[in-house]
User: What shape does this take?
Amino acid sequence: MPLPASTNHHHSDLVPKIQMTNMYNSRFKFHGNDNINRWTEYTMNQVSLIGIALLLVIASANISAETERMLPEQKIFTAAAFGPDGRLWRIIPSQKYISVDYSTDYGKSFSQPVRVNSTDISIHLWDENPPTLSVDRRGRLYVLYFANDKQASTSFFSHSDNGTQFSQPIKISSEADNRYHYQTEMIIDATDRIHFVWHDVRDREEYKKLGGGDLSIYHASARTGKAIQLASDQRIAKNVCSCCRTAMAEDIDGSLVMLARFVYPGNIRDHGLFRLSSDGKIGEPWRVTFDDWAIEGCPAHGPALSISADGRYHMAWFTQGEKRSGLFYAWSDDQGRTFSSPMPIGDQEKLPGRAEVLALGKQVALAWKVFDGMQTRVEAMYSMNGGLHWSAARPIAESSAQSAHPALITDGKQIFLSWNSLDTGYRLIPVMQLDSSDIGSKSE
Amino acid sequence: MKPSRILIIFAIILSFITLPSHAEQADLKYFTSGSYQQLLKEYADKPFVLMVWSIHCTTCLQKMPLLNELSKNMPGVNLVMLATDDASASDQVKSILAENELNKLDNWIFADTNPQKLRYEIDPKWYGEVPRTYFVDKNHQRVGVSGALSRETYETMLKELFN
Assistant: This one.
């Protein structure tokens, strides 16, 4: 359902004002009804004024404490990407704006942050709706984020030639003011076009009659440059599960490939692939996971996809299906028509989830989260031969506080885990170990 | 002027400051570490249904009219609702609950910096999918089900629990 922005204000801004108005009204009302002499009134006014001043101090202290408690941590959703010059760029969300900084020493130190949105707006991110940063081959930056506007968590993007100054925020959906939309993903293709795909509720009425998932995936794109003018958006998929992020990767033929959790007959929430060719042709989706997870609800657990330079598709996904349950990886050499038999990932006793996959030539890395009741760990494993053989899984980072989903990024030489948690802060950790003697398990 | 009168003034002023926020707390309680155990204490020797939902879960929202109907038709049923959205979404959660006349129930919202820990405290086998419904009997033996349930399932389970 569309979530009206009016219900979505950060109430702490509003509540204190209302309370204070009440307080003043009550004071005057009380005086009007009371029959007291002038001297007493004067003293009483003095006393009440001091009292009110004191109470205001107490109340404002409470209000600021309340504000801090009420607003979620947005900085947790830090995202990063390498530029062509090897700089590590990072977006740092706060409650009211997004900033960007960079590191020239692989995350040991960072530059002064630069603000992306000059006007404050309520930033609204969550773990299945994180912001994204892309850097193109010319070093230009593109920042995608979500903020409460006329609709909750409206998608915005800004771009910059060199990271010193950003364009005004641009709303991505043509229905941004009227229709709830979220989980937007961004990619810059090899021909320097910027693409956005997102989940949109605008066709919900149509799906009500037909049944099935009631979300659509929409797409908009533009040529990158000084000014970016998005072409009109279009629906590229129907009947998508409402709460799982869609994964996107560029194939070696220039088409975009989307891996989404669809709703199949019987409320089966398995995955399908579909293509958007470079000439704009939208392909029909086909089903690629057959786990038969029947759930009329939200798994809130999207898949991951990476396509290596040799055209191999690598995917990772989560399921609790009748036929298969857990976290899995598989690869395809025929553009996703058929996949290798699913390889289980992670220790089933520790709730493995949120798998990310990234291929760099023949290197492939997988990273996922586990939780033992106290500690969240990111575990990782890697392959040096395109996913055929894998290293043993090992923990590479841990946290005992809130943490973002793990992300894998590359500078073109190696693969890193990019991860943020409230207690340890942002970390960039190489996934590969130099010692590859533990490579053993097989996926074919 | 008598000190007692000043006290009364302060009491009135104070009440205007504190009352609204107290009323708010009553509508939607913060679910933090330890809250699940607190729930078990509150419902000691009593059966209850814990209905876990989210504002981003379309199915959860679609099932709210049914929950409203059930809670009205079966007033003896202890229905506890828990939104897994962050406390910052309190206003959205409250308005959805009010729209569906579910605001008088025992309502909670996740309010801890680590939601994973909260989920684990409720159920170490739960991955976070919603809606998730726990039918907890008076001995606090429970059944957890993911996904929306039909009216028939609810009615059968509730009759079994509360009879």
In short: Chain A has three domains: 5-69, 72-238, 346-444. Chain A has a mean pLDDT of 85. Chain A is about 15% helix and 35% strand. Residues 5-69 of chain A form one domain.
